[in-house]
Amino acid sequence: MRAVDIFIQQILNGLSIASVITLIAIGVTLIFGLTGIINFAHGEFLMIGGIVTWLAVSAGLGFPLAVVLAILAVGLMGYILERGLFRFTLERPTNGFIVSLGLIVVLQHVVVLFWNPNQKSIPRPLTTVWEVGGVRIASVRVMVIAITIAVVALSFRMITASRYGRALRASVEDRDTAALMGIPVRRYITGVFVLGSALAGLGGALLIALFPITPFTGGTMVMKGFAVALIGGLGNIYGAVAAGLILGIVEGFSAGYGFSQWTDAYSFALMILVLIVRPHGLFGGTSGPRMAS
Amino acid sequence: MKTVLKMGASAALCLGALAHPAFAEDNIVKIGVVAAESGSFVSAGHTLPAGVGLAVKQINDAGGIKVGGKTYRLEMVKRDDRTDIATAIAATQELVRDVKVQAIFGSETHDFTLAMAKITQPAKIIHFAGNSTLAKILTPDSVKPGGEDHYLFQSEPQEFQRSGSTARGVLTLLEPLLGYKPKKSVMIVGNDATGQFLSSYYYKALKAEGQDVPDIIFYPPDTTDFSPFLTRAKSLNPDIIHFWYNGDSTLTALPQALELGAAKSYFLFGVDPGIWKEKQLSADVPVAMSCVPVCWGESSNPKAKAYFDAYFAAGAPHGVTSSVSLLYHDYVHFLAEAWEKAGSFDPDKTVEALLTLHHQGVVSDDLTFNPTHQVTHATEVCAAAPGGAISCSMQQPPAEAPKS
């Protein structure tokens, strides 16, 4: 295999890593950046999305329908948890953070209780592998990249160009004034939380299409999601996408050419560096919303 | 009121009798288990209580153990270490100080066991662990009476033995399937204490078998996307990629390796053929698998099928490395036999008995501990041909570690 083929293969590898990380990062950046809720259980939302997909596919449903179910189920879970837990912590984000840490353990153990701790996997929804020169391109990875691009474009448009997005951004700037202008801030917070959760559900469905998952898969993914959200700038979808790409390529290249065992360390070192040099992220973002009084 | 009190007292007595119908409280011997029943090491961890629990049930169903003229029933008290060393230490302290177990099994995570031994050994608790890393501390000095690890036993062969038999088995089984003698191997290994320890021995074992090993690629624990690591391995054009550790990661990596066409054949450490069949895995190139120590799903060991039938019938999950349970199951029976032989639960007499017994287990008809409290037995290696046929063979360990 030629060196140039290896190089191109590593770029493609990086792109598919970036896709799932970007999906989780968008959820994190929206929820953390726009509502102030620090939900470290977001990785478990992703895991639940994967489990729902696995259950649906195991029950004989097709992958597309399973994806829809995962999005709906995790979105509904997000709604229930925001209404039932996180809304009581909005004025004390540290409490919300602690609640989310507890949720990690609870959600993992609920899954272990009902479906055991072993790996879950589904048959590849797409099995074709194209060979171009010496480079192998798996169609399932192309599918994941394409879905991510579509979802990112949709989310970006919704936040930047829609009436809902404008109101949301106004709420981030100044919640009190936004409320005085008639924007139902609390309802918008719920909406963002549900949207971010649904994206995690989609991420989980796409993740299990690529790799087996376990009840403990969420932990690593959420750390990377937070790293990407912070590198890109909180609340900045464009930043999350760019940072996701940077992180994916850094991971791919460090595993391929550097000290492979340090792959995660490179990513988090980059995050630390960015936070020191540019506290609002590479592409600028909110520093988290001011809390409602 | 008196009637109510009498009824309450009667009910309490009845409930107490139901809890232990045949044995009084002082006729129960508690055996502790510390294992990862959650967290990243769960696939190996959950085999431990399952294996110990099955042995405890078998012993109790057969009437318990007779020690010093009395019959005792065994009771397993298990604790989940959540793949967290601090939790493992706390659980061990609780089992030793509060629960007052007579013996402890675990943990399956190598470095955890070393920490646990710091609690079990001063307390004179018989401690079994299927960790080859124990070789670091099991020395003639440390295991002698009064030594700091006198009550510690390693129920997995020494790593040069396991690595040596595995490497030889993999190369022997893959050669006819490849149609030529493989020359170049690349290892892909999880970068934690266990992975680093195990891979250092396996690397030497491969070299001793004449393999060119240009790279050992370490990946961070919890990796799910192996494509960058596999692409790196592919660039070295290997005959075999050896996924040396651990089973869950290996099963995640293999489909990606097949998709990338990373090598001409593969070896999966710690993956039972049973899971290969159950998940209906297949490959267009030969794939070797090794079990720790006897395979579930396809085995040349005549006792294996009956054991795994009983193991799963008792409710054990169908895990990637279900065979790891045998590093513990046999030693509960071994320990029970030692207590009966010693005629006492005295830890010193028990150690003496353990060192002189020849136990007939599932893994081997002649399980014994050497003077440094370590077992020696064969390791089973299997290979799946393209198309699915699986063949297995027991590989005897080398007599000594390779020089280098």
TrEMBL record, chain A:
<feature type="transmembrane region" description="Helical">
    <location>
        <begin position="135"/>
        <end position="156"/>
    </location>
</feature>
<feature type="transmembrane region" description="Helical">
    <location>
        <begin position="12"/>
        <end position="41"/>
    </location>
</feature>
<feature type="transmembrane region" description="Helical">
    <location>
        <begin position="265"/>
        <end position="283"/>
    </location>
</feature>
<keyword id="KW-0472">Membrane</keyword>
<keyword id="KW-1133">Transmembrane helix</keyword>
<protein>
    <submittedName>
        <fullName>Branched-chain amino acid ABC transporter permease</fullName>
    </submittedName>
</protein>
<dbReference type="InterPro" id="IPR001851">
    <property type="entry name" value="ABC_transp_permease"/>
</dbReference>
<keyword id="KW-0029">Amino-acid transport</keyword>
<feature type="transmembrane region" description="Helical">
    <location>
        <begin position="61"/>
        <end position="81"/>
    </location>
</feature>
<feature type="transmembrane region" description="Helical">
    <location>
        <begin position="188"/>
        <end position="213"/>
    </location>
</feature>
<dbReference type="InterPro" id="IPR052157">
    <property type="entry name" value="BCAA_transport_permease"/>
</dbReference>
<dbReference type="GO" id="GO:0022857">
    <property type="term" value="F:transmembrane transporter activity"/>
</dbReference>
<feature type="transmembrane region" description="Helical">
    <location>
        <begin position="225"/>
        <end position="253"/>
    </location>
</feature>
<keyword id="KW-0813">Transport</keyword>
<keyword id="KW-1003">Cell membrane</keyword>
<dbReference type="GO" id="GO:0005886">
    <property type="term" value="C:plasma membrane"/>
</dbReference>
<dbReference type="GO" id="GO:0006865">
    <property type="term" value="P:amino acid transport"/>
</dbReference>
<comment type="similarity">
    <text>Belongs to the binding-protein-dependent transport system permease family. LivHM subfamily.</text>
</comment>
<dbReference type="Pfam" id="PF02653">
    <property type="entry name" value="BPD_transp_2"/>
</dbReference>
<keyword id="KW-0812">Transmembrane</keyword>
<feature type="transmembrane region" description="Helical">
    <location>
        <begin position="93"/>
        <end position="115"/>
    </location>
</feature>
Automatic annotation (TrEMBL), chain B:
<keyword id="KW-0732">Signal</keyword>
<dbReference type="Pfam" id="PF13458">
    <property type="entry name" value="Peripla_BP_6"/>
</dbReference>
<dbReference type="GO" id="GO:0006865">
    <property type="term" value="P:amino acid transport"/>
</dbReference>
<dbReference type="InterPro" id="IPR028082">
    <property type="entry name" value="Peripla_BP_I"/>
</dbReference>
<dbReference type="InterPro" id="IPR028081">
    <property type="entry name" value="Leu-bd"/>
</dbReference>
<keyword id="KW-0813">Transport</keyword>
<keyword id="KW-0029">Amino-acid transport</keyword>
<feature type="signal peptide">
    <location>
        <begin position="1"/>
        <end position="24"/>
    </location>
</feature>
<comment type="similarity">
    <text>Belongs to the leucine-binding protein family.</text>
</comment>
<protein>
    <submittedName>
        <fullName>Branched-chain amino acid ABC transporter substrate-binding protein</fullName>
    </submittedName>
</protein>
<feature type="domain" description="Leucine-binding protein">
    <location>
        <begin position="29"/>
        <end position="381"/>
    </location>
</feature>
<dbReference type="InterPro" id="IPR051010">
    <property type="entry name" value="BCAA_transport"/>
</dbReference>
